[in-house]
Design a protein that fits this description.
four-stranded mixed beta sheet; five-stranded mixed beta sheet; 32% helix; 20% strand; 9 helices; 270 residues; single chain
Protein backbone atom coordinates (compact mmCIF):
# COMPACT_ATOMS: atom_id res chain seq x y z
CA UNK A 1 0.00 0.00 0.00
CA UNK A 2 1.30 3.47 -0.94
CA UNK A 3 1.95 5.60 2.19
CA UNK A 4 0.05 8.88 2.55
CA UNK A 5 2.53 11.81 2.52
CA UNK A 6 2.03 14.46 5.18
CA UNK A 7 4.85 16.88 4.33
CA UNK A 8 6.73 18.28 1.33
CA UNK A 9 10.49 18.66 1.65
CA UNK A 10 11.87 21.09 -0.93
CA UNK A 11 15.62 20.77 -1.48
CA UNK A 12 17.14 23.58 -3.53
CA UNK A 13 20.80 23.83 -4.60
CA UNK A 14 22.17 27.31 -5.39
CA UNK A 15 25.49 28.48 -6.82
CA UNK A 16 26.27 31.70 -8.71
CA UNK A 17 29.72 30.67 -9.89
CA UNK A 18 30.53 29.89 -13.54
CA UNK A 19 27.82 27.63 -14.91
CA UNK A 20 28.00 24.63 -17.19
CA UNK A 21 25.92 26.67 -19.64
CA UNK A 22 28.16 29.42 -20.94
CA UNK A 23 25.37 30.80 -23.16
CA UNK A 24 22.73 31.40 -20.49
CA UNK A 25 19.98 33.76 -21.54
CA UNK A 26 20.14 35.63 -18.20
CA UNK A 27 22.83 36.38 -15.61
CA UNK A 28 23.10 33.63 -12.99
CA UNK A 29 22.76 35.89 -9.94
CA UNK A 30 19.52 37.36 -11.29
CA UNK A 31 18.39 33.88 -12.27
CA UNK A 32 18.85 32.61 -8.70
CA UNK A 33 17.05 35.60 -7.21
CA UNK A 34 13.98 35.47 -9.45
CA UNK A 35 13.70 31.70 -9.52
CA UNK A 36 13.98 31.50 -5.73
CA UNK A 37 11.38 34.24 -5.38
CA UNK A 38 9.01 32.37 -7.68
CA UNK A 39 9.53 29.14 -5.73
CA UNK A 40 8.85 30.79 -2.36
CA UNK A 41 5.74 32.50 -3.72
CA UNK A 42 4.46 29.20 -5.13
CA UNK A 43 5.14 27.40 -1.85
CA UNK A 44 3.30 30.11 0.06
CA UNK A 45 0.34 29.81 -2.32
CA UNK A 46 0.09 26.03 -2.00
CA UNK A 47 -2.92 24.74 -0.07
CA UNK A 48 -2.18 21.02 -0.36
CA UNK A 49 0.32 20.29 2.40
CA UNK A 50 2.86 21.85 4.78
CA UNK A 51 6.40 22.25 3.54
CA UNK A 52 10.01 22.85 4.53
CA UNK A 53 12.52 24.61 2.30
CA UNK A 54 16.12 23.40 2.56
CA UNK A 55 18.70 25.44 0.61
CA UNK A 56 22.25 24.22 0.01
CA UNK A 57 24.33 27.08 -1.30
CA UNK A 58 27.65 26.16 -2.83
CA UNK A 59 30.02 29.06 -2.09
CA UNK A 60 28.04 31.78 -3.84
CA UNK A 61 29.11 35.40 -3.59
CA UNK A 62 28.21 37.42 -0.49
CA UNK A 63 25.72 39.41 -2.56
CA UNK A 64 23.88 36.27 -3.67
CA UNK A 65 23.90 34.88 -0.14
CA UNK A 66 22.38 38.12 1.13
CA UNK A 67 19.69 37.87 -1.54
CA UNK A 68 18.90 34.27 -0.60
CA UNK A 69 18.59 35.20 3.08
CA UNK A 70 16.32 38.13 2.21
CA UNK A 71 13.98 36.20 -0.09
CA UNK A 72 13.78 33.00 1.98
CA UNK A 73 14.19 33.87 5.68
CA UNK A 74 12.14 30.80 6.57
CA UNK A 75 14.55 28.40 4.85
CA UNK A 76 16.98 26.04 6.53
CA UNK A 77 20.19 27.03 4.73
CA UNK A 78 23.51 25.22 4.58
CA UNK A 79 26.24 27.60 3.43
CA UNK A 80 29.00 25.52 1.86
CA UNK A 81 32.38 27.22 1.93
CA UNK A 82 34.83 27.47 -0.95
CA UNK A 83 37.17 24.48 -1.29
CA UNK A 84 40.10 23.41 -3.42
CA UNK A 85 38.34 22.02 -6.47
CA UNK A 86 40.23 23.73 -9.30
CA UNK A 87 41.60 20.36 -10.43
CA UNK A 88 38.04 19.15 -11.06
CA UNK A 89 35.93 19.77 -14.15
CA UNK A 90 32.71 21.81 -13.91
CA UNK A 91 30.43 18.79 -13.53
CA UNK A 92 32.63 17.25 -10.85
CA UNK A 93 32.64 20.50 -8.87
CA UNK A 94 28.85 20.57 -8.83
CA UNK A 95 28.62 17.03 -7.42
CA UNK A 96 29.64 18.13 -3.92
CA UNK A 97 26.39 20.02 -3.32
CA UNK A 98 24.42 17.18 -4.93
CA UNK A 99 25.90 14.80 -2.35
CA UNK A 100 24.88 17.18 0.45
CA UNK A 101 21.35 17.40 -0.96
CA UNK A 102 20.96 13.64 -1.28
CA UNK A 103 22.31 13.03 2.23
CA UNK A 104 19.60 15.39 3.48
CA UNK A 105 16.93 13.61 1.44
CA UNK A 106 17.91 10.18 2.75
CA UNK A 107 17.25 11.45 6.27
CA UNK A 108 13.68 12.59 5.55
CA UNK A 109 10.66 10.47 6.58
CA UNK A 110 10.19 7.85 3.89
CA UNK A 111 6.41 8.41 3.68
CA UNK A 112 6.77 12.09 2.66
CA UNK A 113 7.33 13.84 -0.67
CA UNK A 114 10.56 15.47 -1.84
CA UNK A 115 10.91 18.17 -4.48
CA UNK A 116 14.57 18.42 -5.39
CA UNK A 117 15.09 21.49 -7.56
CA UNK A 118 17.89 23.38 -9.26
CA UNK A 119 18.30 27.14 -8.93
CA UNK A 120 17.29 28.05 -12.48
CA UNK A 121 13.67 26.90 -12.53
CA UNK A 122 11.10 29.70 -12.70
CA UNK A 123 7.80 28.68 -11.08
CA UNK A 124 4.27 29.87 -11.68
CA UNK A 125 2.30 31.09 -8.64
CA UNK A 126 0.38 27.79 -8.59
CA UNK A 127 3.20 25.43 -9.66
CA UNK A 128 3.54 23.63 -6.33
CA UNK A 129 -0.20 23.10 -5.93
CA UNK A 130 -0.47 21.81 -9.50
CA UNK A 131 2.38 19.33 -8.96
CA UNK A 132 1.04 18.07 -5.65
CA UNK A 133 -2.52 17.69 -6.87
CA UNK A 134 -1.28 15.85 -9.96
CA UNK A 135 0.80 13.54 -7.77
CA UNK A 136 -2.17 12.63 -5.57
CA UNK A 137 -4.42 12.22 -8.60
CA UNK A 138 -2.14 9.86 -10.49
CA UNK A 139 -1.17 7.94 -7.36
CA UNK A 140 -4.85 7.32 -6.60
CA UNK A 141 -5.17 5.05 -9.64
CA UNK A 142 -1.56 3.98 -10.18
CA UNK A 143 -1.50 2.30 -6.80
CA UNK A 144 1.36 -0.05 -7.68
CA UNK A 145 3.62 2.73 -8.99
CA UNK A 146 5.85 5.34 -7.42
CA UNK A 147 4.78 8.50 -9.26
CA UNK A 148 7.22 11.31 -10.04
CA UNK A 149 6.61 14.71 -11.63
CA UNK A 150 9.25 16.39 -13.82
CA UNK A 151 7.86 19.96 -13.83
CA UNK A 152 9.34 21.17 -17.09
CA UNK A 153 7.86 20.31 -20.46
CA UNK A 154 11.31 19.64 -21.92
CA UNK A 155 10.92 20.35 -25.59
CA UNK A 156 13.84 18.20 -26.73
CA UNK A 157 11.74 15.16 -25.75
CA UNK A 158 9.34 16.06 -28.57
CA UNK A 159 10.45 15.22 -32.12
CA UNK A 160 11.27 18.24 -34.27
CA UNK A 161 13.36 18.87 -37.39
CA UNK A 162 15.00 21.72 -35.46
CA UNK A 163 16.31 19.51 -32.63
CA UNK A 164 19.82 18.16 -33.09
CA UNK A 165 19.41 15.15 -30.83
CA UNK A 166 16.09 13.53 -31.75
CA UNK A 167 17.72 10.11 -31.81
CA UNK A 168 18.90 10.55 -28.23
CA UNK A 169 15.92 12.15 -26.53
CA UNK A 170 12.80 11.09 -28.43
CA UNK A 171 11.39 7.74 -27.32
CA UNK A 172 7.97 6.15 -27.18
CA UNK A 173 5.71 7.46 -24.41
CA UNK A 174 2.14 7.32 -23.13
CA UNK A 175 -0.04 10.41 -22.73
CA UNK A 176 -2.44 10.70 -19.80
CA UNK A 177 -5.21 13.10 -18.87
CA UNK A 178 -4.40 14.74 -15.55
CA UNK A 179 -6.53 16.85 -13.24
CA UNK A 180 -5.86 20.07 -15.17
CA UNK A 181 -3.67 19.29 -18.21
CA UNK A 182 -2.14 16.47 -20.22
CA UNK A 183 0.87 14.57 -18.92
CA UNK A 184 3.17 12.17 -20.72
CA UNK A 185 5.51 9.53 -19.46
CA UNK A 186 9.19 10.34 -19.80
CA UNK A 187 12.30 8.18 -19.67
CA UNK A 188 14.50 11.23 -18.95
CA UNK A 189 14.75 14.12 -16.47
CA UNK A 190 17.31 16.65 -15.46
CA UNK A 191 18.04 17.02 -11.75
CA UNK A 192 14.69 18.61 -10.80
CA UNK A 193 11.67 16.46 -9.92
CA UNK A 194 9.00 15.68 -7.31
CA UNK A 195 9.18 12.16 -5.93
CA UNK A 196 8.22 10.15 -2.82
CA UNK A 197 11.09 9.91 -0.36
CA UNK A 198 10.81 6.14 -0.26
CA UNK A 199 11.76 5.94 -3.95
CA UNK A 200 15.12 7.51 -3.17
CA UNK A 201 15.74 4.70 -0.71
CA UNK A 202 14.42 1.93 -2.98
CA UNK A 203 16.73 3.02 -5.82
CA UNK A 204 19.59 4.58 -3.89
CA UNK A 205 22.32 3.02 -6.01
CA UNK A 206 20.98 4.68 -9.16
CA UNK A 207 20.44 8.03 -7.43
CA UNK A 208 23.96 7.94 -6.03
CA UNK A 209 25.29 7.31 -9.53
CA UNK A 210 24.40 10.96 -10.22
CA UNK A 211 27.42 11.81 -8.07
CA UNK A 212 29.74 10.28 -10.67
CA UNK A 213 28.75 12.63 -13.50
CA UNK A 214 31.93 14.35 -14.61
CA UNK A 215 34.15 11.37 -13.85
CA UNK A 216 33.67 10.13 -17.40
CA UNK A 217 32.55 12.15 -20.47
CA UNK A 218 29.83 9.61 -21.25
CA UNK A 219 27.98 10.02 -17.96
CA UNK A 220 24.92 12.28 -17.81
CA UNK A 221 21.39 12.29 -16.38
CA UNK A 222 20.24 10.00 -19.19
CA UNK A 223 22.31 7.02 -17.99
CA UNK A 224 22.33 7.68 -14.23
CA UNK A 225 19.15 8.86 -12.47
CA UNK A 226 17.03 8.31 -15.57
CA UNK A 227 17.54 4.57 -15.11
CA UNK A 228 15.09 4.88 -12.20
CA UNK A 229 12.29 6.19 -14.44
CA UNK A 230 12.45 3.02 -16.53
CA UNK A 231 12.01 0.68 -13.58
CA UNK A 232 8.68 -1.21 -13.41
CA UNK A 233 7.75 0.26 -10.01
CA UNK A 234 8.26 3.91 -11.05
CA UNK A 235 6.55 6.24 -13.53
CA UNK A 236 7.88 9.73 -14.22
CA UNK A 237 5.41 12.18 -15.74
CA UNK A 238 6.01 15.42 -17.63
CA UNK A 239 3.26 18.09 -17.84
CA UNK A 240 1.94 19.67 -21.04
CA UNK A 241 1.82 22.66 -20.81
CA UNK A 242 4.76 23.19 -18.51
CA UNK A 243 4.58 23.80 -14.74
CA UNK A 244 8.03 25.43 -14.49
CA UNK A 245 10.47 27.05 -16.91
CA UNK A 246 14.13 26.09 -17.00
CA UNK A 247 15.88 29.45 -17.38
CA UNK A 248 19.10 28.27 -18.92
CA UNK A 249 19.53 28.24 -22.69
CA UNK A 250 16.97 29.62 -25.14
CA UNK A 251 16.29 26.13 -26.51
CA UNK A 252 15.12 25.02 -23.04
CA UNK A 253 12.14 27.39 -23.02
CA UNK A 254 9.04 25.33 -23.89
CA UNK A 255 7.82 25.79 -27.46
CA UNK A 256 4.46 27.41 -26.61
CA UNK A 257 5.53 29.27 -23.45
CA UNK A 258 4.57 32.83 -24.35
CA UNK A 259 4.47 34.12 -20.79
CA UNK A 260 8.13 33.65 -19.87
CA UNK A 261 9.00 37.35 -20.06
CA UNK A 262 6.00 38.30 -17.89
CA UNK A 263 6.82 35.65 -15.29
CA UNK A 264 10.44 36.76 -15.26
CA UNK A 265 9.40 40.40 -14.79
CA UNK A 266 6.87 39.56 -12.07
CA UNK A 267 9.60 37.96 -9.95
CA UNK A 268 12.03 40.87 -10.04
CA UNK A 269 13.68 41.35 -6.67
CA UNK A 270 14.82 44.82 -5.63
Amino acid sequence: MIPSPQHLWVVLRTCDRVSLSADRIVAKDQCIARCLNSLVQSLDNNTTMPWTLKIIDDASSDATRDTIAKIAPMADVTWLEARDDQHLNARQRSRYSVAQAYDYIYQRPTEDLVYVVEDDYLHYPNSIDVMLQAWFYFTSWMSMKSVGIYPQDFQQLHASPYHKFNSTYVKACNTLIGPDRYYRTTWYTQETFLLPAWTFHDHREDFDSLLTIGDHPGLWEGNTISRVWEQPDVVMLMPMPTIAIHVSQREDIPFYCGDFEKLWHDNQVS
